[in-house]
Amino acid sequence: MTRVHALLADMRRSASEESVPILRPECEKILVDVVREKRPVRLLEVGTAIGYSTLLIAASMPESATLVTLEIDAERAAIAKQHIADAGFSERVTVLVGDALTILNQLTGDFDFIFLDGPKGQYLAYLQLLLNKLAPVAVVVADNVLFRGMVNAEENPPRRYRTLVKRLREYLAFVSTDERFATTLLSDGDGVAISYYREHRGESDEET
Ligand SMILES: C[S@@+](CC[C@H](N)C(=O)[O-])C[C@H]1O[C@@H](n2cnc3c(N)ncnc32)[C@H](O)[C@@H]1O
């Protein structure tokens, strides 16, 4: 087992003990495969928590790549920074602490990989802010898009989740109909949407 994998195993244990939400095990391979296949060089993650998915992504990205990750909770961000340092990625991974909406307004592009795993109701707002910060070819992975099966269900969600479910449906509708995106929706875990972006998508372009 490599140092990063040993660290990830420890992190999964402590996240479970501390009830910190992190990527479901069944989604790890999806995330890693996209990063390995697309070989992005400027990556962005929204929702760092303690840095579990951050390290998975960092360990899979090319050596020349850099990753910026955003977390609103200062305590979690501090733990993530320590894990990133322990894994030897401090030079290439930057944790920014604050509200993602504020930070995204200030960030400059061009990102060619985005992992959305922060507040689910904000995915579309984040993506809309990021549209002019994407590289000409990019991929956007969004986790929990089926939110406990409620997004695809015919019956109404419980009242407290109505806005969230409506917003996730709006996100999925956008990445499924905007012609710059080709989206694959996977039911693994809590639902993962992989949206392949091309600034100029011609008729001859492949699905991705
Ligand atoms: C599901 S967790 C992220 C898990 C992480 N990506 C992983 O798989 O290891 C979502 C994180 O988003 C953070 N978050 C919530 N609202 C936020 C906001 N407005 N801006 C930035 N981060 C936010 C939460 O504090 C939480 O740590």
UniProtKB/TrEMBL annotation:
Transmembrane segments: none annotated. It holds the Pfam family Methyltransf_3. GO terms for biological process: methylation. Keywords: Methyltransferase, S-adenosyl-L-methionine, Transferase. CDD domains: AdoMet_MTases (cd02440). One of its GO terms (molecular function) is O-methyltransferase activity. This is tRNA 5-hydroxyuridine methyltransferase. The lineage of its organism: Bacteria, Bacillati, Bacillota, Negativicutes, Acetonemataceae.
